[in-house]
Design a protein that fits this description.
Oxidized Rhodanese, domain 1; 39% helix; 7 helices; globular; five-stranded parallel beta sheet
């Protein structure tokens, strides 16, 4: 087996070559058309601000959450392979990787939000803040 030292940017560029990305205005339009929002940031990031109605499944548990055979899968994601999804993270990198992964897992209508929540908030788009659960 040949080992290479692939960088994060190389992984990211590979993923971006296989996915669709959309800008803020396009994403806002998709949401208004009924796209589901999958926020793959960590729970504390989601609590700080998120798009209304988004489902939070952190990147670190995405594959088991989406898997058809994993007992602990999240049915809201697992059973929605034919649904339309806008995937978001903080800046768009993790979401690009997640979008690529979900497509490989059989999800058909996946779009990554270029610039992520940072761009969304900078554009003045509406966000919600969750109450921390302690």
């Amino acid at each position: 087996m040949i080992h290479t030292n692939k960088t994060f940017n190389e992984f990211l560029n590979d993923a971006k070559s296989r996915i669709t990305e959309i800008d803020i205005e396009g994403a806002d339009k998709l949401i208004s058309q009924g796209y589901n929002v999958l926020d793959i940031r960590e729970p504390h990031e989601h609590e700080a601000s998120h798009i209304e109605g988004s489902i939070n499944i952190p990147r670190g548990v995405l594959e088991p959450a989406a898997d058809l055979t994993f007992e602990g899968a999240n049915p809201d994601l697992r059973d929605a392979r034919d649904s339309q999804w806008l995937v978001v993270c903080a800046t768009g990198g993790r979401a690009a990787l997640a979008t690529d992964t979900l497509q490989q897992m059989g999800f058909k209508n996946m779009v990554n939000l270029a610039g992520g929540m940072n761009a969304w908030e900078s554009a003045g788009k509406k966000v919600l803040v969750s109450e921390p659960i302690y």
